[in-house]
Give the backbone structure.
Amino acid sequence: MRLPTYAGTLEDYALVGDPLIPRAPKVPLTRTAFAAAHVVSDPLAERDPWQGRPAVDWDATLRFRENLWDQGLGLAEAMDTAQRGMGVDWDTARELIDRTMAAAKAHPMKPRVACGAGTDHVPLKDLTDPVRIKSAYSEQMEAVEAAGGQIILMATRALPAIGAGPETYARVYDELITQAAQPVILHWLGDMFDPALKGYWGGASIDEANAIVLDLITRNAARIDGIKISLLDQGHEETFRAKLPESVRLYTGDDFNYATLIEGDGPHYSHALLGIFAAIAPAAAQALDALAQDDRETYHALLAPTVPLSREIFKAPTQFYKAGIAFLSWLNGHQSHFIMPAGFQSSREITHYAQVFRLADQARLLTDPDLATHRMGQLLALHGIDG
């Protein structure tokens, strides 16, 4: 088929990949891996895409999660990948958490599920002080725990908005961590994912932020499962994880360098909490299976081709990566359409989708090549391109 290029031309492309067949792992995995999954819209029920609650196809949304669980992956629910604050409101996220936890409890593999708790149900203009911010967090934490999920303390836009300093972050997080029933996962999301999070933790530099977070973790180590870091900086993550208490995990959120970070450097390695794992599930799950068997050659053979794909999906402006996740879900038959909450599919251009198609093929991630080719052709035709 003829695909557009970034040079503004059309070039012939023939599929080359040998698709991976999704399967369960053969041995227990040695890395905890949470895939952050998206929400599947219901276009027939949608009435006002840019305002109000999004219409969700709950059956398709849960089937997608069950597919991840069938392959041995855990789930990070109601996170950024699910368009929290970018089309999905808290009422929808809470229903998503409730439905997902019920499905997880019924699943034969009893998967781990961690759920995002934040402050997004309260308008930012009303979160004017630490007490109100903590109260907003607490409400969502209680909802996650009531459903049976593990808490991920999502980064909030409210603390940077009030110009919070290190002492305020420390006070809010100490109290939230203490009140949680089970150890929590902290969440350090860089401003490339959300510009409103610039300056998070209240430090004037990355070194100051590191010191603030490490101090927070050290004094609360018994109540912290781990920290997810999404700064797209391999060197920073490797240095930071070496300083963590032994009991605290580093969950990489680095969608550029995950293969190297998960393998590790000997004594230290990262676990995973990644949006890209939802898009590359067969490769990710089977690579982790190989790593658990100390078959590093297969590990790299499976994951290495996914890295260019992930870098394309997460290219700047990075916050629009969610469109690539849903696009691959559509190509692979996990949903019948390519419509997203708030019309988010329009956040990327046709040349991007063409490149994602090429790279997914080369990474062996077009599970049904005929279906994927047909659907790529439909998208090309919508853009006036005869594929």
Q: What stands out?
A: The first helix runs from residue 58 to 70.
